[in-house]
Amino acid sequence: RGRGHATAMLRAALPGTRGLVADAEEGVLIDCNISNAASRRVIEKNGGLLRDTYPLPKSGRLTHRFDVPTT
User: Fold this and answer.
1) For the chain (length 71 residues), average pLDDT per consecutive 10?
2) Global pTM?
3) Which of 48, 53, 58, 62 could lock 68 by a disulfide, CB 3.0 to 4.6 Å apart?
């Protein structure tokens, strides 16, 4: 934990999303549980900007959604 492996894996995976979906050329949408601070840091270290916070339909748990660039 805390050695940057998740950040590096996300960084390596993002360019591969281009071409998979039409909008992925500009960025992708990634979400994480509002209580998961480690995932939020990983997303933000890869350029993620908080889009909004919303409740999941079935559980009502709050989730952060981030716009993350693929370049």
Assistant:
1) 91 84 74 96 97 94 94 78
2) 0.86
3) 48
